[in-house]
Amino acid sequence: MKFTQMAKANEIERDWIVVDATDKVFGRIITEVATLLRGKHKPSYTPHVDCGDNVIIINASKAKFTGAKIEDKNYYTHSGYFGSTKTHKMSEMLEKNPEKLYKLATRGMLPKTKLGKEMLKKLKVYAGSEHPHTAQIKG
Questions:
Q1: Where do the domains of the chain lie, and which CATH numbers do they carry?
Q2: Which of 4, 37, 63, 76 could form a cystine bridge with 52, CB 3.0-4.6 A?
Q3: Percent of the chain at pLDDT above 90?
């Protein structure tokens, strides 16, 4: 009889994957990254174990946006106090802090649990083409 093998946390090998965002559509990048962070591209995928890879996004500020999202889309924050809702335009977030924009979008595609938070910690975003993780990347 054959049984499905469940991956254990100590048996998982994590790779470092570099994604170049230059002239790619923002949403397509995020779905690809969410799949890599979850580990769904691996044959040993197990839903209750973090078996994804570490992902580095370079040239984050050079991604393309379809439609009028760049001007029209807003992100909202609320501290819990009355009247404390703040609005941030997507274009401003892309200029000031693209890392936060990419992490917010990716977080929406990951599980809303402790496991999802652990997966999101493996995402590194850089606006330029330089990153400090060259030692981790194989060949």
A1: 14-65+97-125 (3.90.1180.10)
A2: 37
A3: 86
